[in-house]
Design brief:
39% helix, two-stranded parallel ribbon, 11 helices, alpha/beta, single chain
């Protein structure tokens, strides 16, 4: 198949391309062609202008682009940057898909479990009582734009992704330094739930969705067994043989990160019901094994 990917230089995109390259023709849309080739090799085709592409010749579009949501304090300027980095490229892709005479049969577009907002109980794709906060509004509009591409000829799949665990970047890489210095521990009371997914399962799930023509709409990409922040911290500390007794007070976190601290102070237990019902098998269902796999290689 001919596959176009945005976000091909990101954590998920790079790992996904390793597998797609073996069987498909992959084009990466990127702001930095040299970076795309450096990270993904010259087996891919890299372009910096969508006008260089004929969407009639594409079978699949995978949209993973977006400014990291938790890297910086949420000033109004940063919020707008986070929004536009998702909305603009998604709208451009949708417009070109709709204009094509023979459009791609599949449009897989990113989203996040932030769609649900903070939740006090377990939720899955059927849940519609979302908490009204920035992460919800961000993901909802992002999904609404992507859904414009849905038609009899193009199915749209929305990847509501949890915390992706990898030894090559992302949230785990940011946590490790403090834990290695024996300064790790839970955030606030530690009762907030964390819905996570191992990078290998993340890639496998996208490939599974790609090959399951009957799947469409929102799909949760989270392991079946979310854990509390306290449990995650204890398990991470145990895995790297460090103590786990420092607590990050909520007030300090809010002082440092403002509204963005809500992502860390509140959580949700998200279940991947659609993937499980479709027959997808997670290789890393439990946090203990997942962290050992990543950190004790």
């Amino acid at each position: 198949m001919n596959i176009l990917i945005t976000g091909g230089t990101g954590l998920i995109g790079k790992e996904l391309i390793k597998f797609l390259n073996n069987h498909h023709n992959v084009t990466v849309f990127t702001r930095s062609i040299s970076k795309a080739y450096k990270l993904n090799g010259h087996q891919i085709n890299a372009v910096s202008d969508l006008n260089q592409l004929d969407f009639n010749q594409l079978d699949v579009v995978i949209n993973l682009a977006g400014e990291p949501i938790a890297d910086k304090r949420w000033t109004q300027q940063q919020k707008e940057k986070i929004e536009q980095s998702r909305f603009n490229i998604t709208q451009q892709l949708v417009d070109r898909i709709k204009q094509a005479d023979t459009p791609p049969h599949t449009f897989i577009s990113g989203s996040a479990i932030g769609f649900y907002g903070r939740q006090a109980q377990a939720v899955d794709e059927s849940w519609d009582n979302c908490h009204p906060e920035f992460s919800h509004y961000l993901c909802k509009k992002w999904e609404d734009i992507a859904n414009q591409a849905q038609s009899e000829r193009t199915r749209v799949c929305l990847l509501r992704t949890g915390i992706v665990l990898s030894d090559k970047g992302g949230a785990l890489k940011k946590m490790l330094p403090a834990f290695k210095l024996c300064l790790g521990g839970p955030i606030s009371h530690g009762e907030q739930m964390m819905s996570w997914i191992h990078i290998d399962d993340m890639v496998s799930a996208i490939l599974f969705i790609l090959n399951q023509a009957d799947l469409h709409g929102p799909i949760n990409l989270t392991a079946p067994n979310p854990v509390s922040n306290a449990c995650f911290s204890q398990t991470l500390a145990k895995t790297i043989r460090r103590p786990d007794f420092f607590t990050m007070p909520a007030k300090v976190l809010t002082l440092l990160f403002g509204e963005m601290a809500d992502l860390l102070l509140h959580g949700q237990a998200v279940k991947p019901t659609i993937l499980l019902n479709a027959g997808f098998r997670f290789h890393h269902q439990y946090i203990e094994e997942a962290l050992r796999n990543l950190l004790q290689k």
